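Re: inosinic acid structure - here you go.
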Amino acid sequence: MSQLVVATSNPGKLREMQVYFTDSRWELTLKPEELEIKETGTTFLANACLKASQVAQAVRKWAIADDSGLEVQALNGAPGLNSARYAKTDSDRINRLLQELGDEPNRNAQFVCAVAIAEPDGSIALQTVGTCQGEILYAPRGTGGFGYDPIFYVPEQGMTFAEMPPEVKQQVSHRGQAFAALLPQLKNL
Ligand code: IMP
């Protein structure tokens, strides 16, 4: 097995990523807790690359990072890069978003997930971006998932992310799309 250091100290995030690596030769591990990483990029992809590079260079091993968020068309792409910091809790973030959208009829939105893998010298070996198109509901629906899941409705599935069984969300989500593109390329490294 080859070691792949995940640019996070959050075990939940590691578990979430591990799902996509079950059949691979890579063993995922957490980055050292004390290692601070900067997220100063202006796009999801720039941030994923920055995080993967910094961790790889610091630990001199292969590293992987992701960066994700929700872009709402009628809000000019907000909350976007600010998705995690839009308000204090998941329900506050949902309430703020619903309030800002109000009765706006254009409910189009997309989740974006960028993933980057860096070599031990920090150079980027692979990068990919996955998206999932949907609509923002007027009120939350469903109890699964996290974050903005209860208000993000995917017309093809006829469900919000929070109503989907986990294996369905894993496949159709922005993260699922990003990893579906990444994993075949990983075999060539
Ligand atoms: P980060 O990628 O860990 O920086 O998180 C980005 C933020 O985007 C999260 O804190 C959530 O608010 C939101 N987000 C990203 N992916 C999802 C998802 O699959 N469902 C719901 N919210 C998400």
